[in-house]
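[step 3/7] fold_predict: job queued, chain A
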Amino acid sequence: MNRIPSHDFPLAIRTDFSDDEAWDAFVAAMDEPDGGDDSVADVELFDDPAYRDLTSDELMQLLPEDYEDSFFVVVDGPALASPELPVLIVDLLHEPGRSFRVTAAELPEIEANLSISNMDFFDYADSVEEDGVFRGFPERGDASRALRGAGD
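[step 4/7] structure written:
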């Protein structure tokens, strides 16, 4: 199998092709500003059926030789089966292959912080909920709820 072509941003690799509407929802979510600072995820969407059903380990072996990002994202069946679109994010720096799921809504924050090394992969991986999905830090959620309530 051929290596994935080089890209300028961290890759979000589609491996499930059973639901085009769910994929379209993920693509749209990547263009929607997140709730915090209106940032969007700077990820390169890679949509090639040749990579259908590959695992994160298999994809790691096919990343471009010049891939410089510390992580990549897998948009797989479990991600597209849920309205939260919990994609798999895979570490390439500290513990290569370690992964966790993150909702599409939280991906912009993670992408931004990991891309500039403001936070480490484990900061997020160690903060997933019981089901293995990162939905944001509880403190931030509580603070933003308090701020919204203060304006009422």
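[step 5/7] annotate
The chain has a mean pLDDT of 88.
The chain has one domain: 11-150.
exit 0
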